[in-house]
Write a structure and sequence with these properties.
alpha+beta, Arc Repressor Mutant, subunit A, five-stranded mixed sheet, two-stranded antiparallel ribbon, 16 helices, 7 strands, 51% helix, disordered C terminus
Length: 342
């Protein structure tokens, strides 16, 4: 198998961290220093850090400070400055739909470890968040920061008083349900296949207030120069498409090669050059995703087997036991983090 990819995230994603930690009675300099960071790093648009360190810093901070909603609080304090030049592009798009297209194209500048897309379903549209990595370690603070920050950016971008139709988290809650409703001002539910924020489709084509084509064009040109070295390689692209198509039973090499605009044999050859096969990628992503959901959510095993693309729960249980040496329920019982409920 190929070596583990070390994804990077801009340290600007931590803007407001030092103020929040101080407000909670903690020492931000000590927490940051453990990961080789200073308060100045949070002001940089270009400095990056390993996503695993980023995730662990959030988890450690929440635990040390006894603050279950740490990620939600941090995201609620942020604005477009966390995105640097990408934020400039988004603020000057003509419509939210154009901003979403730009975010999808340039998100790797800000964060190589996640990908956002949107899917319309009649009167409502889902903004869905995908991760390029799955770890068994708890990443709920990181996920809650991501959705909280996205909510704040949409409020600024679209119009005052904007609200989502509903929010869906892929994990079990860390705080009482009332806490999430207070932050997001809408219905919030948990244990879904993906993190998603739902909004009215008609909002996507409303003109934005601060559009400026000249500023947007200049910022996009600058971004293209910066991200030349951060394009996803073929293994990362295939892995991401597998994650997006598992639940709809379309994670086949034929479908993925078509989505990439490649011949099936060409894709097989490129993956072989990286020391991996398509089947190995599917099996690896299924197991990593299964372990994450079993630990971080309370999703029913039957539903989990469906979103992982298995034809039935017995097939999932057999594959999981073969890979992990224990049944899915046994694995969950051994490692399950106790969620906070209403």
């Amino acid at each position: 198998m190929t070596a583990t990819v070390e994804y990077q995230i801009r340290t600007s994603a931590l803007k407001g961290f030092d103020v929040l930690v101080e407000d909670l009675g903690g020492d931000p300099h000590r927490l940051l220093a453990d990961y080789g960071l200073s308060a100045e790093a949070l002001k940089s648009d270009l400095q990056s850090m390993n996503i695993r360190d980023f995730v662990q810093l959030l988890e450690t901070s929440a635990t040390t400070l006894g603050c279950a909603d740490f990620g939600l609080r941090l995201g609620a304090s942020q604005d477009f400055r966390i995105l640097g030049p990408l934020g400039v592009v988004l603020r000057h798009c003509r419509t939210p739909r154009e901003a979403l297209h730009s975010a999808r194209s340039f998100v790797c500048f800000h964060n190589q470890s996640e990908y956002w897309d949107y899917h319309s379903h009649g009167a409502v549209t889902a903004l869905q968040r995908y991760e390029n990595f799955y770890d068994i370690t708890d990443t709920r603070q990181y996920r809650e920061l991501a959705l909280s920050a996205c909510y704040q950016l949409c409020r600024v971008l679209i119009r005052p008083g904007f609200r989502f139709v509903r929010l869906e988290f892929s994990h079990a809650p860390l705080s009482p349900i009332s806490t999430y409703r207070r932050y997001f001002k809408t219905d919030v539910s948990f244990n879904h296949e993906h993190d998603a924020l739902w909004l009215e489709t008609q909002l996507l084509d409303e003109p934005l207030r601060s559009q400026n084509d000249a500023v947007k064009t200049a910022a996009m040109a600058y971004l293209r120069e910066l991200i030349q070295d951060h394009e996803l390689d073929v293994v990362q692209q295939v892995s991401l498409l597998i994650q997006q198509t598992l639940g709809v039973q379309e994670a086949s090499i034929e479908n993925v090669s078509q989505l990439l605009g490649l011949n099936k044999r060409t894709l097989q050859r490129q993956l072989k050059q990286r020391g991996v096969t398509f089947k190995e990628l599917v099996n690896s992503l299924r197991m990593r995703s299964a372990c994450w959901h079993l630990q971080s959510s309370t999703m029913d095993i039957t539903l989990l087997s469906e979103i992982l693309g298995y034809s039935d729960v017995s097939g999932f249980s057999h594959a999981f036991r073969k890979a992990q040496g224990i049944s899915p329920l046994g694995w969950r019982k051994a490692r399950k983090a106790s969620p906070v409920t209403k």
